[in-house]
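Ticket 4471: requesting a sanity check on a complex prediction with magnesium ion. Repro inputs:
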Amino acid sequence: MSPSSTVSLTRHLLEEQRAGRINADARLLIEVVARACKSISIAVGKGALGGVLGDAGTAGEASINIQGEAQKKLDVLSNEILMEANAWGGHLAGLASEEMDHSQPIPDVHPRGNYLLLFDPLDGSSNIDVNISVGTIFSVLRCPDGVTTPADEHYLQPGTAQVAAGYCTYGPSTMLVLTIGHGTHAFTLDREIGSFVLTQRGMTIPEETKEFAVNMSNQRFWEAPMQAYVGDLLAGKEGPRGKDFNMRWVASMVADVHRILTRGGIFSYPLDSKCAAKGGKLRLMYEANPMSFLVEQAGGAASTGRQRMLEVQPTGLHQRVPVFLGSKAEVEAAVGYHARHDAG
Ligand SMILES: O=P(O)(O)OC[C@H]1O[C@](O)(COP(=O)(O)O)[C@@H](O)[C@@H]1O
Ligand SMILES: [Mg+2]
Ligand SMILES: [Mg+2]
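Returned structure tokens:
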């Protein structure tokens, strides 16, 4: 790529600002998050050499987060990196993380901005120690007018209120995928110059697909409509769907969604009797909503199986939801099975 044709993240965001699609504060916020992701990418890349593998906690005592999950060292380290990068405020009024019980307002010694940042600092934690792609997911909301010290309830805004969303995937290459509501674009980290370079403008998800992603080991715990939907996928061209489907499951949402943004497919983490009491497995505010915004901006669809994801009214910071997202026609097909079932 000749230098003149190279579009860095900074240049891309400046062009978006000049076009009036983003303001300086939001642009700065995204740049700060991207910089933090570069540091996380370096830590992840070191692996065992950096002493970042394995569980957090000391003396055999696991460190358990609000989700009731044992934290990995990289969960804690990534969270610290994002907290430190954003601590000086300027563009932010507060932030919330998968790894913290409650949201945190920016200390009032710093100027506070107008935005709220939510993040899953390290997504795909079960893959950290086995060197499979992991990532960071983030969502940006406006701080409600007149609120100077935001609390948890101020984050409970539907996904349609997101100003920006993105993820960074730490795999063979480090990539940042971003939307500010004008398409979904991918940037690859050029390790030589240390900056994200635009490598795919306007990602588009094909409407139709022959690829599905779900943790099949949960099949016996699924609801009847999900059993029927996947049963028909597996029946292939001899079955009612009339075509064969292939399956993929990385067990890192960032990696599974990146594949779908790149070549189509459907990702689902449905309700099952194991997680029903919690409302699902994946979290609405910093997993489902940002991914749904990115997918919709790339021409795909996202649903709980029964409702457009971005219209879900949040009730809790760590609320969980069933997730279906990806190729539009396939998500509609999955939703159809639930609707027919619910209609008896
Ligand atoms: O272990 P399972 O049931 O396959 O679930 C995998 C899912 O859980 C997650 O790892 C949950 O995210 P965290 O790793 O951030 O907790 C998703 O990335 C992934 O899609
Ligand atoms: Mg996650
Ligand atoms: Mg996580």
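Notes from triage: Residues 116 and 245 are 40 Å apart (CA to CA). Leaving this open until the requester confirms.
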